UniProtKB/TrEMBL annotation:
Top-level taxon of origin: Bacteria
Protein name in the entry: Helix-turn-helix transcriptional regulator
Cross-referenced SMART domains: HTH_ARAC
Stored Gene3D superfamilies: Homeodomain-like
Residue ranges annotated for the HTH araC/xylS-type domain, each copy included: 158-256
Keyword entries, A-Z: DNA-binding, Transcription, Transcription regulation
Upper taxonomic lineage: Bacteria, Pseudomonadati, Pseudomonadota, Betaproteobacteria, Burkholderiales
PANTHER family registered for this protein in UniProt: HTH-TYPE TRANSCRIPTIONAL ACTIVATOR RHAS-RELATED (PTHR46796), TRANSCRIPTIONAL REGULATORY PROTEIN (PTHR46796:SF14)
Length: 257
């Protein structure tokens, strides 16, 4: 006679002065969640739904079916830092369960391919992370205020352009680039987009592809040399980005010329 399978374990979630933000990448059929001794959720989460919990409280969970989600650990200190940078006064995030949030879902989808590995684009990940924090503060923050938009001054525009072009082969971070202008990351990210029309990571990627086209056209370097000189992890990474931006592979682009 077949013995029934044991129930999945109830997992104690470690306490921390932080928030847990979970977004479901696929439907989660069955799940239980307790705050202290009180059951606060029993049921499903749909694809694209978000749950936010304050980890200072005692939480336990039980996964009763397969799941596919992305979890963001957001320290309270990070929210305070964002407040200082952008002028948004946030004391915490309001807890939610199974809230549909296309913004968090699409940010998670955008970040997923860029996570880890030699081809990780640090400037892109920084930008996605900053966008996520800003959205969480604006939608779920207990206090909020919209900062005024602005543009880079002429000297800041020139300095950051020269710095990024001079460092195409390096993995730049948002903190490093914003420091060239004497601005916080949040202020710089808004001002850069207002000035150049695109986020910093997108502008940098466009400049890398433009430089790669020049090097390929000269015929003086191999494909691998071009990839490394323009800041790509390897030839495969370069080819993927080149095709995504120009809708044609590097070799085909050369033949077309």
């Amino acid at each position: 006679m077949l013995q029934p399978l044991p129930a999945p374990p109830v997992i104690e979630i470690p306490c921390d002065d932080a928030f847990s933000v979970i977004v479901q990448l696929e439907d989660f059929r069955h799940h239980k969640l307790w705050r202290g001794k009180r059951l606060v959720h029993a049921g499903s989460h749909r694809r694209g739904e978000v749950a936010i919990t304050d980890l200072r409280e005692e939480w336990r969970c039980q996964h009763l079916s397969a799941f596919d989600n992305m979890r963001f650990h957001v320290p309270r200190a990070t929210l305070e830092e964002l407040s200082r940078e952008s002028g948004v006064r946030v004391t915490g995030l309001n807890p939610v369960q199974a809230a549909r949030d296309p913004v968090v879902f699409h940010l998670a989808q955008a970040a997923l391919p860029a996570m880890g590995g030699a081809a990780a684009d640090t400037l892109f990940i920084d930008s996605v992370t900053l966008a996520l924090h800003t959205h969480l503060c604006n939608r779920y923050g207990k206090q909020e205020a919209q900062p005024a938009a602005g543009r880079l001054a002429a000297w800041q525009e020139a300095r950051v352009r020269d710095y990024m072009l001079a460092n195409l082969a390096r993995r730049l971070t948002l903190e490093e680039v914003s420091a060239q202008c004497g601005l916080s990351r949040a202020h710089f990210a808004r001002a850069f987009k207002n000035t150049f029309g695109v986020p910093a990571h997108a502008w940098l990627q466009g400049q890398r592809i433009a430089r790669a086209q020049q090097l390929l056209a000269s015929g003086e370097k191999s494909m691998t040399e071009v990839a490394l000189e323009c800041g790509f992890a390897d030839q495969s990474h370069f080819s993927r980005v080149f095709k995504r931006v120009l809708s044609v592979a590097p070799a085909a682009w050369l033949r077309a010329r």
